[in-house]
Amino acid sequence: MKSRRIFLQKAGLSALALNISTFNPISAMPNFLDAKKMDEKPLRVAIMGLGSYGTRVAEAIQETKRTKLVGVISGTPSKVEAWKTKYGIPAKNCYNYENFDAIKDNPDIDAVYVITPNGLHKDQVIRVAKAGKHAICEKPMAVNAADGQAMIDACKAAGVHLLIGYRMHFEANTLEVIKMRKAGEFGTPLFFQGLSGFIIGDPSQWRLQKSLSGGGAMMDIGIYSINGARYMLGEDPIWVTAQETKNNPEKFKEGIDETIQFQMGFPSGAVASCLSTYSMNNLDRFFLNGTKGWAEMQPSTGYGPIKGKTNQGPLDKPHTTHQAVQMDEMAAIIFDGKKPEVPVNGEEGVKDMKIIDAIFKAVKTGEKVTLKLA
Amino acid sequence: MKSRRIFLQKAGLSALALNISTFNPISAMPNFLDAKKMDEKPLRVAIMGLGSYGTRVAEAIQETKRTKLVGVISGTPSKVEAWKTKYGIPAKNCYNYENFDAIKDNPDIDAVYVITPNGLHKDQVIRVAKAGKHAICEKPMAVNAADGQAMIDACKAAGVHLLIGYRMHFEANTLEVIKMRKAGEFGTPLFFQGLSGFIIGDPSQWRLQKSLSGGGAMMDIGIYSINGARYMLGEDPIWVTAQETKNNPEKFKEGIDETIQFQMGFPSGAVASCLSTYSMNNLDRFFLNGTKGWAEMQPSTGYGPIKGKTNQGPLDKPHTTHQAVQMDEMAAIIFDGKKPEVPVNGEEGVKDMKIIDAIFKAVKTGEKVTLKLA
């Protein structure tokens, strides 16, 4: 699919040609319709930060119907050269971290997807906003809520969208569980459990440097359990408690959390019990329990496929590349004003940051921290 | 099996007859051997408290190889009459709560299994000990650690055994996971999760009366997660934190916990995250995660069958009635001095009570409570 899309882009073939050349007319229909939309107006995206996740997003964009990778911002000239060749990116759409404010004068770029270390997001998103481009920012949006709010303010002032890279918010099985919960099929939701963990490798990576990451596992993957608690219960927490355990202080230095257990309470009386760790694999599970039923997702946030079941049976929505769905949905938000089932805007991002701030405070003080997110 | 055993007991048939009458000689072999042991010397048990769990134990005893139900202690004469008939219990082995100290003069009873409300265990077990009989006490052994210690002291002074009704400590799949953990098949254990919950019915039952129960869900089922954390990780906790949520204060009055989330830390750096509730079904799950593998049991503590799997495959030990295995193993402890894989003595019970005391303190103070169980 990816190579076909690239081929078609390069060859300048029409959407109609794409449809005709497809064997299966049923599966081709959405392609036909959406490719038509793309001809009308694709969201032209530059990726800032050409690391492994940036690469994943670039690949996913090749699968999208309404977005196009048109530019890059990177501090590594060799990467820029490789991407220019691979994705047919024109030299005029390539920037580095010093000169990318000039993007404001580039009419061929609509949005910048910031996929850099967390600690850099704030300044970079603000610069993107000032350049008049929509900002898509990888999660966590920042390293604390205050920075997140500054990003919202800058984007509002510039009249551009700020969207957070919450790919799970668009995942089909996740949305199915949310739909079932809203329809009352689990009764009253009372408990959410989120386990998020993997054993992190290279100790020199930016994710283990406080100035770049803003924290450890919590910032990187604990946020999935926070997201999950909120969208699966359908509420925002009013308190958090948290307990940190650090078994390897050499690898996980001051300010880099290795393992945090955290709990949240919600206005309805529902509770959440979560764990975030950089020291264990086999932890990617969501569990929602209500008075009438339950949902279990495992894996719940990996790149897919997401697997799960409810008291009614398996969750069987087909897998699609998360980042591709995310990008197309973000194009719909920007172009059509579409309201996603679960918000992915800056305000949503700041709620998560406020919760992370509270978790860190709870770890530090040992006390229950109350929250007011509304 | 139950009715056959009763028949054989009544008919006075020999163990050899049992063996010969069995179609499958392989499955019959243990029966043959153990029935022989029983002929030699069964543990003759009186049950104190003829409620639903007492009834379950009585039925299980019919399946055992080395124990025999020979007496009852009850405050309800109609129940005593029914049990006399059903189990062939002689009138001289029937007592009530006023006169059961006279059991000391009854040479036909070896042990009393106390299956009464938690708040009564202490005095009743001490009276059993003073009567010179071995005490088997349903869990939780008491309503706090101090009472539990008093029970230990009384049994020691009387030279009788004190065993706690920890049926899971003898369950085959549970023991398989423990064996695998000890063999290092999960690597270093780092995380245990225990979820224990069901929706409790009749609000007038003793379990919802503080003076009889000593607490709510924690005393009744939270203790399973505490047990699980300890035997699956193979350590005793050094700290606990806990958060209580009460959504129905009419049903769950002062001192009766509805839902408690609790966390424990262990000397190795492992952590446990648990939930105990009387307001949710579908919560009976253990999960053990180590550096090399994991085990999941769900259901993990129900009356069975226990189901589970590890990273190596399904746990497939066949189901046997938990209470029957427990009783036979307890006979082996008493008669043979057998050391069970996981202790079930009073000291083990007091450790759990100390943890529950600490959880209640953590709920009350909102602070981390340190523990020294060794």
UniProtKB/TrEMBL annotation, chains A, B:
Similarity section: Belongs to the Gfo/Idh/MocA family.
GO molecular function: nucleotide binding; oxidoreductase activity
UniProt keyword Signal present: yes
InterPro entries in UniProt: Gfo/Idh/MocA-like_OxRdtase_N (IPR000683), Gfo/Idh/MocA_domain (IPR050984), GFO_IDH_MocA-like_dom (IPR055170), Glc-Fru_OxRdtase_bac (IPR008354), NAD(P)-bd_dom_sf (IPR036291), TAT_signal (IPR006311)
Organism of provenance: Algoriphagus aquimarinus
Gfo/Idh/MocA-like oxidoreductase N-terminal domain residues: 43-166
PANTHER family with a match to the protein in the record: OXIDOREDUCTASES, TRANS-1,2-DIHYDROBENZENE-1,2-DIOL DEHYDROGENASE
Protein name according to UniProt: Predicted dehydrogenase
Keyword Lyase: no
Top-level taxon: Bacteria
Alphabetic keyword roster: Oxidoreductase, Signal
Start and end residues of each GFO/IDH/MocA-like oxidoreductase domain: 176-295
N-terminal signal peptide: 1-28
Pfam families: GFO_IDH_MocA, GFO_IDH_MocA_C3
